[in-house]
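ARCHIVE CARD
Drawer: 12
Card no.: 0347
Subject: one protein chain, sequence and derived structure
Cross-reference: see card 0346
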Amino acid sequence: MPRQVDHESRRRLIAEAVCRLADERGLEGVTLRDVAARARVSMGAVQRCFRTKEEMLVFALGHIGERIGERVQARLVRSPAQSAGTALGHAATEVSLLREEHRAEARVWLAFVAQAAVSEVLATTLKANYATLQEAFTRLISEADESADRAAPLDPQREARALLALADGLTTHVLVGHLTPQEAHDVLHAHLAGLWEQPAPQR
């Protein structure tokens, strides 16, 4: 058992090294040799943990997804005074990575998204991450809609897809300087407010 725990710890150490290098130079600049140097382990140690660079990148992407997911889940541990709508706003803010302390993580996330466009295995991991987040958003929207005063109910899954796409897109807009973090925050929360304040369109 101790050996297995040490192996997993080393894989996470290597994943962190991958993320730091990806933040500095993009995924194209990530080599096994540089990762070993940054993680302060031998090349052999990296190769014992991961057979290929692609396998290493898949694990690193999953590692980032777990970190974001853990923060989202922490926001979803609601106090009695926190509504589902408020929890949804907190979760969407975490996913959009708008805060300054998450800027490096946002750059690395987008580097992986770009690479996933040409890597089926990375795309598979990314889709699983998005599916988990969408499920959480869908549940919260459904809960919040039950207590909202609307002419007709929302479609929770459709709104969850839209919200996830908006949060993800705002990450890019902030990174390239099209929007300030505050402007992106305002866009996100105006959208959320509109879910509960505006009547559903007639079909």
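Annotation on reverse: The chain is about 75% helix and 0% strand. The chain has a mean pLDDT of 87.
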